[in-house]
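Build the 3D complex.
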Amino acid sequence: MLIDPEKCIACGQCEVYCPVGAITIGDECAEIDFDECTECYNCLRMAHCPADAIYQQKLEWPRTVRSVLSDVLTIAPESGISGRGTEEMKTNEVTGRFKHGWAGIGIEVGRPVVGARFYDVEKIAMAMAKLGVEFESSNPTTSLMSDVKTGKFKDDVLNEKVLSAIIEFSVPLETLDQVLSGLKQVSRQIETVFSLCVASRVAPDGSIPTHSVMHQNGVWFAPNGKTNVGLGRPLIKEDSI
Ligand code: SF4
Ligand code: SF4
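Done.
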């Protein structure tokens, strides 16, 4: 995103809409730190600039990555995917993607204010790849990897900054312990933060099989449940998964 210094009147209206603090207001005009800007479009969409000074420059690869992962309305030209994760993570009752005995993992790297650079996303992905995980193929973050076996990303995206990027995969429950240990280790090597989503099917006795593993690893979590009351139509029959 750019600001036209000829038009800007330094009113300051756009500054509060930037989730990464990339806008500074000078005496005569505002300025956007181009390296920090995640191309989230917030300032242009929300600030209603009175001077019409904010404009979107033509985005070219690899800067397009910023927009795809920071502005939910952008669709990636490379993958045709919009948003940061795959909605199947939240609709398992329809897709049956996470089977009994498995845990679905979503690692959201970065948050508003801090954001995330892809060199940190790569460190986490490579740590997880060492456990033999298979990254979700329809996830936009996976589409930026040059090697899905090692979690290595394309070199030209490594310095790109986004609001957040979600790494997705599923593991057998017995591997969850190693995932949590690996995440604790790699958390000391990165410059940003991440949050973890662990999804699993509820066992027939009503228990949630991932809870004990989380407790044993000292991981605080906020349980969320979802019950399908008929709005979805299961694609995979229970006895086949
Ligand atoms: S809202 Fe427009 S005029 Fe006001 S500081 Fe931002 S760019 Fe400049
Ligand atoms: S596009 Fe987003 S990150 Fe960039 S200056 Fe505007 S609000 Fe800030």
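The two ends are 47 Å apart (CA to CA).
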